[in-house]
Design a protein that fits this description.
UPF0227/Esterase_YqiA; Alpha/beta hydrolase; hydrolase; 38% helix; hydrolase activity
């Protein structure tokens, strides 16, 4: 199993958060310049479509890119305060010529106190774009702002990977 982590616009994956994710799987965390590549989603799709990416985790602008990439690759994702309804004037082309594979699980963590990306705007986007091929979990944490504290990241990562494990066990039992 491997995790593709997509950082936010002006951030990187911290060593602390990488350590947490590596408990569950090796982590790939490319250094991305979203501003200079309006085709970042297709670039990442082309880069990882033939690699074994099992999970996508993204934050803020990386959550926007992760949402669309997960839909293309068909892998589960967990997205923190994704910039789904708006992108701060940064152009990103959503490739409509590629087939959608829809992930089995999509987990969203929204900060009720996020002044950068409003949870209500993300919820409106999701309700307009929901598909019936994915199981959605939407976590709205009232006191959470845009930045994700290490304790929240650790707790949500544990819950996300546990849900993947439980789903895999159910799939195996139904196969038998």
């Amino acid at each position: 199993m491997s995790t593709l982590y997509l950082h936010g616009l002006e951030s990187k994956l911290s060593d602390e958060k990488r350590t947490i994710l590596e408990i569950y799987a090796p982590v790939i965390a490319p250094d991305l310049d979203y501003k200079s590549n309006p085709n970042m989603i297709e670039f990442l799709y082309d880069t990882y479509k033939n690699q074994k990416i099992d999970v996508i985790i993204g934050s803020s602008f990386g959550g926007f890119v992760g949402y669309h990439l997960a839909n293309l690759l068909g892998v589960p994702c967990m997205l923190y305060n994704p910039a789904l309804p708006y992108r701060s004037g940064i152009e990103q082309i959503i490739p409509s010529h590629l087939a959608m594979n829809h992930p089995s699980i999509m987990r969203f963590v929204f900060g009720g106190n996020d002044s950068v990306i409003k949870a209500v705007d993300n919820l409106a986007f999701l309700f307009q774009n929901i598909n019936d091929k994915s199981d959605y979990s939407i976590i709205l944490q009232h006191d959470l702002g845009h930045q994700i504290p290490i304790t929240v990241f650790e707790e949500q990562s544990k819950l996300f990977f546990e849900s993947l494990h439980q789903r895999n066990l159910r799939d195996i039992k139904s196969f038998l």
